[in-house]
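B., you asked whether I could sanity-check this one before it goes into the benchmark set. Here's the sequence:
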Amino acid sequence: MGSYEFLAGCYDELTTDVGYRQWADYLEKHFHRTKLPVHTVLDLACGTGSLTWELARRGYEMIGVDRSEEMLAAAQEKGMEEQVDIPPLFLHQPMEKLDLYGTIDACVCCLDSVNYVTRPALLERAFERVHLFLMSGGVFIFDINTPEKLRRLDGQVFLDETEDAYCVWRAEFSQRRNICTYAMDIFQLTDSGLWERGEELHEEYAYTPEQLEDMLRRAGFTHIKRYGERVFRAPKEGEDRIFFVARKDE
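And here's what the prediction gave me:
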């Protein structure tokens, strides 16, 4: 089974510790630093839309894009509980084939979604598509799991559980492929009271910061800066997550 086909049904239950409000707070601070007023925001690889809806509640006109139909279905379902002036528009697209109806003021791509593009050529194409649809002066913000973190995961086993879901995942890092693979066994409690088991395989590519900066420049971005995890300082050595902020020239 491919990534997120089974996990989508319990993703939110297993990720209650993410802190989407704190993520949105951090992104907003970057928005306020731009010369261009930010109104329309693209949430690239939006998943189940938790961050998309959080930003929509704050008044942003949101577009959520993801390649997983199952994750997008979960994002759409949240609209039944939300009350916002302008509900997000959700589109089923891979990053490298991003195709919007108009321009955007900002693009965010969070929770190491960039690492999930395991072919560098496709990621560079995705950067080009983001640059194409950004307004002049617009900002592109994303984060990555660092290569050091992904290598440290090799051989580790993790367990996430709730009352209705149970997930065991094992990580293996391939030096040859430069990819960390997560093999997941997921158990979900069904309405009938029985447990359903699913298997998924997820992969993250270990991009170096220098490699990503080169891609951004080739895509046309300028004023590229790196930050530590949700802070406004340069990353420290050994930090697990790095944020990138890049701008499109006015």
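One thing to flag: The radius of gyration is 18 Å. Otherwise nothing jumped out at me.
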